[in-house]
Amino acid sequence: MTAEMQAPETTYPTTHQGIIDFVTEVAALTQPDRIHWCTGSDEEWTELTDALVATGTFTRLNPAIKPNSFYAASDPIDVARVEDRTYICSVNERDAGPTNNWMAPDEMKKKMRGLYAGSMRGRTMYVIPFVMGHVEAERPMFGIELTDSAYVTASMRVMARMGTAVLDRMTELDAEFVPCIHSVGHPLEPGQADVAWPCNDTKYIVQFPEERAIWSYGSGYGGNALLGKKCYALRIASVMARDEGWLAEHMLILKLTSPAGTVKYIAAAFPSACGKTNLAMLQPTIPGWKVETLGDDIAWMRVGEDGRLWAVNPEYGFFGVAPGTNEHTNPNAMKTINKGNSVFTNVALTDDGDIWWEGLENPPASATSWKGEPWGPQSEELSSHPNSRYCTPIKQCDILAAEYDDPRGVPIDAILFGGRRKTTVPLVFEARDWTHGTFLGATLSSETTAAAVGAVGVVRRDPMAMLPFIGYNAGDYFGHWINVGKDNDAAKLPKIFYVNWFRRDDEGGFLWPGFGENSRVLKWVVERIDGQAAAVETPIGHVPTPESLDTEGLDLTPEALAAALAVDADEWRAELPQIQEWFEKFGDDLPGVLWTELDGLRARLGG
Ligand code: GDP
Ligand code: PGA
Ligand code: MN
């Protein structure tokens, strides 16, 4: 740093030297006009959102319909996570391999320091003290995000516990924290007008796993810019979890209560835009069953003294896919967002100041599309980007489980893996044991979605739905999962299942109605755990007999149900070379037991 690169004046509301140094250094490098230390107060929210309205980033929605809520449209080049621009910069390349992009940390830092130099000119640098999980946790997981985006700051307030209370606790504990730098990469020269969605063609989303640091540049989109979420709570936390013997996973957490009052906790890993948020808030269609939500995206799980796997949701809000959300598919999400205090990005804006998206009831006669163009029901283009999102406080969810506020979390009874597959994968089946369940997770496959930039609908392996989020060598990650089973009493660990809501019939329609009807699958899962429901043993695992699934009142032909549950040996034999090729990528880093599992599957399929 040179002498003329001075940080702007600021009064430090903390004596934590590590935080002071971090803020000073980054400010000297990025040269913001102002530094704002976030308090998290309502007044601050009002100031921020007023400023966002003034710059045109936000449009205030009609307060009579969506109080204290805002619409934003991004630059069309900044709509989703950028996996090809995401790096794990471990000291050794092997520790990022073979599923992540890698660059040597020094080389990446040099490159990014060049990009960050002066990148906040003309802007405010917001200092966001935050904690993922509970501030009263045994070991609170702190972070400081420095960002030049007011949009990111407002969104972080919804998605994470942040502000003065967190900073004070960090100061009191002289706590370690994950330093997170974020710049949209759009400095303003004196007199230069701002744009509604500043960003940069050049994007880098970088994790330094040994240093536990995150540097992000060029994007304002959620998963790229709200650094507490995917970057910290998955990529960096997965490295911490490897070192400390716990699991940081891309999973929803739900509480299921049976008519008899029996409670079970279920975690489920599906790739982005494959149904986590919907399942987390499911409204059961079977009488007497109740679902409550604990989390919709991320689960931190550790084995407790009782030998059970305890899970907490480190987040404070929902960042949900908008299209497809409606009163039928997800009434609980609709109630949550209708209470207001939410941000909607890349949906359509209606003429009466409300929002709309594909799949929502009552299409407006006219609206403005996410691209800012006039839109009507006859338009050929979509009103909303397929990855448009609502960002809403979790505390507004009527079915939030009381245990959400317990720093110990909840003991998980079942883990579901799942993805989007048009063929091959039945509605639900049960793994034989933990190692087989790890094999199912490690070979999870799903069609790509709009949640990441790139082709949509291409089948790829997405292990444990963590492909873009494993912060270290994926072979080691599989080994870590295997070890959790080995080092603990298997009888107390959750049972593992695999689900697929997305199998299609010959006409391309979904075989299974999904959404609230998925409660029937959850019922089968908990009945299996309690040794009640019947299953047939197939080469891939235990599949429900058609009678063991509660289909009372379900509008589904026996043929469709049979097709949804079918295990077609030919289809599965076609998977074998794909799994073989996938495993070969990992070379000697793949735990041998996973090869044994593949051999077993091959043998059971008769070749
Ligand atoms: P997440 O990104 O994993 O949280 O996925 P979401 O729950 O937001 O869902 C992504 C998309 O999948 C949305 O358009 C949903 O409407 C759709 N979806 C979710 N659950 C189901 C289901 O059970 N069946 C079908 N057909 N679609 C679903
Ligand atoms: P999700 O991810 O689709 O799993 O909710 C959000 C993101 O794209 O970062
Ligand atoms: Mn989601």
UniProtKB/TrEMBL annotation:
Look up the record and report any one GO term of the cellular component aspect.
Answer: cytosol
Cofactor-binding details, from the entry: Binds 1 Mn(2+) ion per subunit.
Q: Which residues bind substrate?
A: R81, Y221, G222, G223, S272, N387, S388, R389
Q: Name one Pfam family in it.
A: PEPCK_GTP
User: Where in the cell?
Assistant: Cytoplasm
Where along this sequence does the record place binding of Mn(2+)?
K230, H250, D297
Q: Is RNA-binding given among the entry's keywords?
A: no
Catalysis performed (reactions): oxaloacetate + GTP = phosphoenolpyruvate + GDP + CO2
What UniProt keywords are attached to this protein's entry? Answer: Cytoplasm, Decarboxylase, Gluconeogenesis, GTP-binding, Kinase, Lyase, Manganese, Metal-binding, Nucleotide-binding, Pyruvate, Transferase
Cofactor(s) needed for function: Mn(2+)
Main localisation: cytoplasm
Pathway listed for it is: Carbohydrate biosynthesis; gluconeogenesis
Known EC number(s)? 4.1.1.32
Protein origin, superkingdom: Bacteria
Q: Residue ranges of region Disordered?
A: 363-387
The residue ranges of the Phosphoenolpyruvate carboxykinase GTP-utilising N-terminal domain are: 21-242
**Which HAMAP family does this UniProt record tie to the protein?**
PEPCK_GTP
* NCBIfam families, per database record: PRK04210.1 (NF003253)
Summarizing the function annotation, the protein's role is: Catalyzes the conversion of oxaloacetate (OAA) to phosphoenolpyruvate (PEP), the rate-limiting step in the metabolic pathway that produces glucose from lactate and other precursors derived from the citric acid cycle.
Protein name per UniProt:
Phosphoenolpyruvate carboxykinase [GTP]
Tell me which species this is from: Nocardioides agri
